[in-house]
Amino acid sequence: MSNKFRAEKTITVEDKEYTAKMSLDTCARIESTINCSLLKLANRLSQADILIEEVIQFLYISFRASGKDVKTSEIKQLVAKLGYADSIKLVGELLTLALDAGTEDSEDTNEKKNS
């Protein structure tokens, strides 16, 4: 099950569930591995300038962060099943989730304080 406030997203491919967790630690690991900030990666993604290896590494790190012991080979198979375009779309959704995590929660907290 997906949980926006915890920056988690679950996808199901061929009856197999994968949960990605976009915590601060996950984001830092992705930036370190890809050697690019998440904002720059989002910009590159919008310009169709992302390498398939970056897609694989991004998904690998985010799925591992949820506690599931996935292997790189399993992520490569997942990308092959989803297709390159849908894999890029998934990375975009996870990037959005990471960059937007907690914003609604913060607004709700501020509204409660002002009430």
Low-confidence stretches: none
- Characterize the largest beta sheet: strand count, sense, and whether it forms a barrel: 2 strands, antiparallel
Q: Determine the fraction of residues in helical runs and give it as a percent range.
A: 55-70%
Tally of DSSP helical segments: 6
Based on secondary structure, the structural category is mainly alpha
Q: List the strand order in the largest sheet.
A: 1-2
From the alpha carbons, calculate the radius of gyration and give it in angstroms.
Answer: 15 Å
Secondary-structure element string? EEHHHHHH
Structure, described:
This protein has helices at residues 24-34, 38-46, 52-64, 72-82, 84-100, 103-114; strands at residues 8-13, 16-21. It has one domain (4-114). It is 63% helix and 10% strand. With 115 residues, it is mostly helical. Strands 1-2 form a two-stranded antiparallel ribbon.
Provide tags for this entry.
2 strands; mainly alpha; 115 residues
Write a brief caption for the model.
This protein is mainly α and 115 residues long.
How would the blueprint of this fold be written?
Layout: E1 8-13, E2 16-21, H1 24-34, H2 38-46, H3 52-64, H4 72-82, H5 84-100, H6 103-114
Antiparallel strand pairs: 1-2
Helix pairs in contact: 1-3, 2-5, 3-4, 3-5, 4-5
